[in-house]
Structure formats: structure tokens, C-alpha cells
Amino acid sequence: MNKNLSDEIWDKTFEKNGKVRHEKATFKNRYGITLAADLYLPLNCEKKLPAVAVCGPFGAVKEQASGLYAQELAARGFMAIAFDPSFTGESGGTPRYVASPDINTEDFCAAVDYLSCEKRADPARIGILGICGWGGMALNAAAEDTRIKATVTSTMYDMSRVSAYGYFDSLDENGRYELKKSLCEQRTEDYLKGGYKRAGGVADPLPGDAPFYVKDYYDYYKTPRGYHPRSLNSGDGWNATSSLSFINMPIMRFAGEIRSAALLIHGEKAHSRYFSEDAFKLLKGDNKKLMIIPGAVHTDLYDNKNVIPFKEIADFYNEYLK
User: Fold this and answer.
1) pLDDT per position as a tens digit, 62-116
2) Among 1, 20, 164, 267, which one has the highest count of C-beta atoms within 10 angstroms of its own C-beta?
3) For the chain, percent helix, then strand, then coil, each to nearest 5?
4) Rounded CA gap, 181 and 194, in Å?
């Protein structure tokens, strides 16, 4: 069902914490795809721990932001895994570099499968954490999986919304039709060529007239700060046709039925702030919280340890994973 591998090489974009133990792990989702994960544990743990599965950002790998979050949670007493989604990083699945609202939601649930059966984890105290595009996936998983007791999203994107409506909901029906037409023509071309055109990662070189949020992504994915060779955003990006399923299949339809706890975190200055604010409006109950970080931009919540509210995240999990 799973296996833990010995620590071999530190290939992360963040420094190793000497107070945390790191292992490799694999597990399968219900589509039979093997997912690769980094598992982080506090040193000398002698009891079953509350556990958290972490994924994101969209187009990143576990050696980037999700690994940092997982390590920080382990330093605060949690078992945490950062995993690569299906078709990306060290995880399996073909064709490569494709995203799916269904399969990627399932990836979170598969991580819960793994943690529910991990002998050092307490199956009654499992949470998830999604960063950027996996924030939306995390809420989608929380609406489906009643084993999830607490969900945190950080600098969240709703990938269905941005795919179907564009940034800031600027795409109308005609624009959406032209987008679908172009993507479907690309499907035909891909079939004829027997391969998949890549959409391209973060623009490089950076255009002089690039909007701030593109510069923000460049500063993370294309510089030593966050570059990783397996990251799609650092490289050639997703398959160009990946967004088709997101256009037609909105996530978070049943977000209003999430009974477990949820904490949504976003930067005040982030271009994507409206995703968290609007998602929060869907949630019900006094166990739902929205935290806006003053002055923070989107990627500050990827790796800026002076900005990411790790204490508040740990406090939230401690409150609801009990």
C-alpha cells in the first residue's frame, strides 16, 4: 500500500530544519496512480500525531512551498506530508503535465488514505492544506471527504473560475467560446503529432510590460529563490489543453456543506485575494475563518517565513484536530 524510503539528498528550495526528521513515501490514489511525497516528523515522537497533507502551488512540486509548510508543521508537532499531484514531479501518471479537477481532488483524498493508515498518525486527527491552486482543490476535497477534520488554504486560487472566466472575471461567453475553440483545435493537433504541446511556464525573459502578478511569479519560479527543475512553472508549464476540464467542471459546488473547520489565508496586496474572499462567502458555521495578511502579495505566502502565519496555522490545527 505504501512504503517509506530513506532520506537520500536534500533537493529542496528551503533550508533543512535540524529539529525535523525527513522521509520519502509513496501511496496510490483510487485511479491507480502512484503519488510521491516527502514526509516530515518531529524528532523523537513517541505517540500518534495529528497529521496534515500539503499540496501546491499549481504548477509547483513538493520541494518548493508545500515542503516548507510541511516541515514547519512538523517542527510544531505534526506529522506532515508534501506530495506531488498526479502527472507531475516524481508522481506517476501519463500523459505527463496534465491537471484534472477530479483527479487532483482525489489526490488529497488519497493522501488522507495514506495518513489514516500510517502507524505514527492519529486517523481521527487529519487535516489538509492547499496552497494557490491547490487551495481550491483542498476545499473541494473537504466538501467530499468527511475524514478531513480541518482545512487550511493559503493564497488560494479557484482554478475552475480562473480557467472559465479569466483573471478578475474578464472573460465573457464569446471569449470563452474562442478559448475553447483554440484548445479543441490544439487537441486535434496533439493527436496528429502523438504528443502534447506545453503551455509554457512563467514567462522568461520577463516582458517589460508584464503585470505585477507575472513579475511576482517570475521572482519565485525563475530565480534561485524558488526555482526547481521539476517545477512546471519553472519550466515549460502544463499541457496546453489542461484547462479544458476546469472550464467545464467547476469545483467547490458543495463548499457550503463543509461541516469541518476551515481557515482561508490571503495577502492583502495579492492579485488573487478575491478567490479567498468569495470562497469564504460560501462557507457556513463558526468554525470558518478568513485571515488577510497586511501588505502581503501572492508569493509572500509561498516562502516568506516572516509573513506566513505558521503559529496561527498550527494553533488552528491544534484547536480542531483533537
Assistant:
1) 999 999 999 999 999 999 999 999 999 999 999 999 999 999 999 999 999 999 9
2) 267
3) 35, 20, 45
4) 20
